[in-house]
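Service request form, structural biology core

Requester: graduate student, group of Dr. S.
Request type: structure prediction, single chain
Budget code: on file
Notes: please return the result as structure tokens.

Sequence provided:
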Amino acid sequence: MAAVGVLALQGSFNEHIAALARLGVKGMEIRKPEQLQNVTSLIIPGGESTTMAKLAEFHNLFPALREFVQMGKPVWGTCAGLIFLANKAIGQKTGGQELVGGLDCTVHRNYFGSQIQSFEAELTVPELACKEGGPETFRGVFIRAPAILEVGPGVDVLAECPVPSTNVLYSSSAVQIQEVDFVLILWKQCESGY
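Core staff response, request fulfilled:
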């Protein structure tokens, strides 16, 4: 059975490996570049993206991660993982952080603000319901979440989260963000489907 790699530098990697096990899928912790050769797909979990980037740089993982993505292997990024996969990130800490890239989008690192500004919202996802069955809505949970502000032409948007343009949730003297009417939730379609 092919293993799914889970980047295990910091963050929720244990939870992802446990979820894979419940599905009967072997999860493998990835901490070194050579370990990527033993997996066919990769999950980059949530966590603190700046810390994860520093650890990835320390372990010289960025070249191997970029090559893995460029080879077209399936990669899923949640929260900090999304930031890693974005081609462009704004709202970063001073000095920024390295990105793996490969997902044609602009992401705002912590658009929704602090932990106390977390929220849940019902999202309409008709394309998923059509392809996978089930209800046309999905309960989205936004906990110190990044926001996808723009996507390129090769990215399919599956859902949008309305954000009142008069209610910018994140501000910083170092970062100016644009006001938007919605935040995009997406999934990049690969050749083999979703």
